Amino acid sequence: MITFWRVFKSGFRNTFRHAWLSTAATAIMAVTLLIMTFFAFSIYFVQSQLKEVQQKIDLTLFISDDAKDEEIKALQAKVLTTSGVTTVEFVSKLDALKRLENSSKEGSKLAKSASEIGNPLPASLEVKLAVIDDIGAINKTIRGYPEGAIITETSYDSSDDNRKGVIENIIRISNAVTRVGGVLSAVFLIIALLIIFNTVRMAIYTRREEIEIMKLVGATKWFVRGPFIIEGSMYGVFGATIAVMALVPLSRVINQFLVEKLNAGATVGYFSSNFMLIFLAIYGLGIIIGALSSWLAISRHLKL
Asked: Is domain 58-154 classified as CATH 3.40.1790.10?
């Protein structure tokens, strides 16, 4: 226990020996952790939006008024066997009229007008998909079935329905956020590793005579290497502390904007309820990055 305390104390002191390098290492660590946290939030938010869209009707197949019940049932059964389709629900012309009537005051007026002219609303099949990304391929597959001849139009290829554009935009944004977040996180992670690596290398060079003396008096490898591992870990702790201190006021400022403008209430609620877990993850990641950088520097420049 005494040996560990000495190693820890020595490593802690080393953190402050090279002020500029220590400041740079801590700053880049804080920025790296902030970027990783931001993109983790962004990816989670976009994925939650995708799930929210997926919980709604993914694909609607509008049926010709001339279609017979047998043809509709045959199409429904065929669509249900399509790979990627989970459920298929039939909505009659009367059901469609009732939905319009109950949707809003404006919808009630439209439903009344529609019923007066003989209910022009088509019957439809509402198709639920397992993966929303497959909607284009599934739409094309269903359109190619012989039973699909009774389909007049689908929500995916309808020029009056913006669902196709919404889905494609969400998927595009999701892919872009994942790529950009991954690249930026990787870049700053490498920068953090290099800066801490060089800081520890400098510390090894500065203390080379002290290390030689320790080796001569029989110090264990752990006793020699330990302070440098602690030093790297401390950069992670300091960087995580700065990142957390920045996240607390920042989250309070942007939470209202995210909820009101981006409808991110579920995502904000998830991160708020797991704030302590996120804090621990940030500290854990910082310590791992710092310790790994130190270990790489020790392996290359500290020969025992």
From this structure: no
